[in-house]
Amino acid sequence: MTTNLCHSGLPDGLVPFALLDLLEKLRVDLGLQADDLSYLRCVFRLVRRDDFNPGHVCAIWERVAGLADRLQMNVRRITRIERRLEACGLIQRTSAANGKRFGRRGEDGRILSAGGINLAPLIERAPELLMRVQRKSVAAQGLKEDRNRVNDLIRQIRGLDAPAALAAAQKVFPRLRPSEVQDADKLEAILAALENIVADFSPASRQTSEAAPSDDLTRPNTNTQTNIKTCRRFEAAGGAKSVTVAQAMLLASDGLRDAVHLYAQAIEPGGMPSWRAIGQAARDRARGLEVSGADWASATDQLGEARTAICLLIADRNTDRRDRFKVRNPAAAFIGLVRKTTRDAAVIEALLGELNRYVIEGAQ
Asked: What angle do the packed helices 330-343 and 305-317 form, to 10 degrees?
């Protein structure tokens, strides 16, 4: 049987061999073996780049024996691979009436008909595979962040110098090793339990009303300067409490905003942008701006993910400006902003206010 099975092309920005990278990341989920990926790499080298254009046919008609020679495998092994890939919905096998494979290209190089291995099923599934990899990446990052939070809570519990608190933590989480937990729901439950233990055994929670100073003996604190500093420390500790998601989206560059929407969809189909999506998108945007992984990790250790994302947002957006705040090297601007914010949390607030005024004035 011959076929003229066309396809609708790859998603924008996805090159053919990047499709193989997606399959590598989803190999276990799709039930693929190492041989299957080796076979597909061989097939991808036999097709042309133009075969992946929308409306084209992307297929090979190399004999099974020829593929076996290329891959240094026996014919039966190749046949098993092709059957497995077809069962997974990644290829379609076709042939002439006598079982032979053949194909024909036009003068422009476009495949007119082919009997062999057609890649249309794989190409049509590219958007789905891309979304699955993005969701997997988001889930893995979320798991990593939760493990870090659990580690922080364990350190806090050990620092309480309260044997009962440590015993309670070990009852909930006997080995106290977050790296061993692979299930996100289980880790979330552990996290909530440890947070309760910290709250129950922290010195502040154990203070009683009798231990508080008497109103008759203590004058109320009316020092406004002290209150302002306390509020600023609380605000800084909270990360991005002074900026809403909507404000962050308004201030973000077009590229960062698009990335946030992409991650929001990956986290939950139809989901709205969140700080989690902003953090993930900012990290990817940082790579595109040539911020090293080491610099990003150092920044998140010092400032937390939310404030680090805001620093990136400011440096990124200011590259589009034409006034004195224009940034020519966003990576260097980001690193400098992180250092300044580490020394003085008010720096980021001032720059956010200035950027907000700039955006509002530009919209008028």
From this structure: 140
Q: How high is the pLDDT of residue 221?
A: 43
Q: What is the pLDDT of residues 43-98, one digit of tens each?
A: 999 999 999 999 999 999 999 999 999 999 999 999 999 999 999 999 999 887 77
pLDDT of residue 238: 38
Cβ partners under 8 Å of residue 193, min gap 6: 172, 173
Query: Within 13 A of 11's CA, how many CA atoms are on the CB side?
Result: 12
CB 141 within 8 A of CB 100: no
Separation of alpha carbons 22 and 20, rounded Å: 5
* Alpha helices per DSSP H over 8-125: 16-25, 27-30, 34-46, 64-71, 75-87, 120-124
pLDDT < 70 stretches in the chain? 1-4, 204-242, 268, 362-364
Element (H, E) at 126: helix 126-159
- The CA angle 352-279-172, to the nearest 5 degrees, is 125
Write the CB contacts of 171 (distance below 8 Å, at least 6 apart in sequence). Answer: none
Distance CA 207, CA 84 (A): 66
Q: What is the pLDDT of residue 59?
A: 95
Global pTM reads 0.52
- Cα(first)–Cα(last) distance of the chain, in Å? 64
d(C-alpha 100, C-alpha 103), whole Å: 10
CA distances from 12 to 83, 130, 138, 293 (A): 30, 11, 21, 26
Token pair, residue 87, equals 């069962």
Contact yes or no for 309/339 (Cβ under 8 A): no
Read off the amino acid at residue 283.
R
Ramachandran angles phi, psi of 118, nearest 5°: -105, 130
